[in-house]
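Why should sequence recovery work at all? Because a backbone constrains its sequence more than one might expect. Tight turns favour small or flexible residues, buried strands favour hydrophobic ones, and helices have their own preferences. The token representation captures these environments compactly. In the example below, the structure is given first.
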């Protein structure tokens, strides 16, 4: 997966957290995910599909990160991962996918995104793509979170099947 695909997600989440939650985050070295286990306690997953690309995006928050983000965004103290945190994870997933989609569209990638699904607990994160899942780890003062991106190029796959 090339940097053209990763940078829009990094740029978008940085903007969202800075403007909506008055928080900063640092991202680490992207890596390939080995299994479908969630990396955080609450995860938003959104399918992406277009003429040339199919896949999905997930954002998975540690308890500390989503509690802090929720508290900052709502202006009231959130003490535990609750329905508010889960709802906010859905909103953050929507904002992330919409912002990244706009930046990717400007680079010539065009695809639609569906409504996000929210997972919590030990539910596996399944991606709608053939191929690797790239994880971009992030660190905040309140704990880590992770963006997962899985994309398969439909044209390459079609060529392989002919």
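From this structural description, the recovered sequence reads:
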């Amino acid at each position: 997966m090339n940097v053209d695909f990763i940078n829009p997600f990094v740029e978008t989440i940085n903007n969202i957290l800075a403007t909506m939650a008055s928080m900063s985050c640092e991202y680490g070295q992207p890596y390939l995910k080995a299994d479908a286990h969630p990396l955080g306690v609450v995860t938003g997953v959104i399918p992406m599909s277009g003429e040339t690309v199919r896949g999905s995006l997930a954002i998975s928050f540690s308890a500390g990160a989503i509690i802090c983000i929720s508290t900052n965004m709502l202006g009231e103290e959130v003490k535990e991962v609750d329905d508010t945190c889960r709802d906010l994870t859905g909103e953050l997933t929507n904002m992330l996918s919409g912002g990244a989609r706009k930046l990717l569209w400007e680079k010539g990638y065009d695809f639609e995104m569906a409504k996000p699904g929210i997972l919590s607990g030990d539910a596996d994160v399944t991606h709608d793509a053939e191929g690797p899942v790239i994880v971009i780890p992030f660190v905040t003062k309140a704990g880590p979170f992770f963006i997962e991106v899985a994309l398969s190029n439909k044209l390459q796959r079609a060529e392989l099947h002919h």
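A few observations help interpret the result. Residues 155-162 have pLDDT under 50 and may be disordered.
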